[in-house]
């Protein structure tokens, strides 16, 4: 299957919905991206709006839930495709969707605090060490303040 790489900067317009599909986490939400252009007078004019459904799987799906909400500014990177379906009245329809492999806040329009995820267990210290294992990495703060 041919996959078209795609990135979009926009605003979350529906709260993410998490589901479980077989053994994987799946999260879906919609994004609106507005175009703007500068007029000859130097003011900004709003253009058309692109609405996309964003599908997230696995770790991306886990990372989105509880972090992004309706109204949040986001950057989505993934592959774009058209989903064709038949509606309840039997009319053939299509929608533009993105299978995201990265989703994050748009730091030009918000502030964020990062929390890095760590593996559940740290590897054991090598044999023959003096017993001093150093600082406990699981308790160290992984939060990094970021400001736009």
TrEMBL record:
Entry's Gene Ontology molecular function annotations: single-stranded DNA binding
CDD domains documented for this protein: SSB_OBF
InterPro entries linked to this entry: NA-bd_OB-fold (IPR012340), Primosome_PriB/ssb (IPR000424), ssDNA-bd (IPR011344)
Pfam families: SSB
Region described as Disordered: spans on this chain: 112-148
Keyword DNA-binding on entry: yes
GO biological process assignments: DNA replication
Keyword Cell inner membrane attached: no
Assigned keywords, A-Z: DNA-binding
Descriptive protein name: Single-stranded DNA-binding protein
Lineage: Bacteria, Bacillati, Actinomycetota, Actinomycetes, Mycobacteriales
């Amino acid at each position: 299957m041919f996959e078209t790489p795609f990135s979009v900067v926009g605003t979350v317009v529906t709260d993410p919905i998490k589901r479980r599909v077989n053994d994987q986490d799946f999260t879906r939400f919609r994004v609106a991206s507005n175009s703007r252009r500068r007029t000859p007078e130097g003011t900004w004019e709003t253009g058309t709006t692109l609405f996309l459904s964003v599908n997230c799987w696995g770790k991306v799906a886990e990372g989105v839930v509880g972090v992004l909400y309706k109204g949040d500014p986001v950057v989505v990177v993934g592959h774009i495709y058209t989903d064709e379906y038949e509606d309840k009245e039997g009319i053939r329809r299509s929608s533009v969707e993105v299978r995201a492999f990265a989703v994050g806040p748009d730091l030009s329009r918000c502030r964020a605090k990062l929390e890095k995820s760590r593996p559940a267990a740290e590897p054991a210290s090598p044999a023959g060490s003096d017993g001093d294992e150093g600082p406990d990495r699981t308790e160290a703060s992984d939060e990094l303040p970021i400001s736009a």
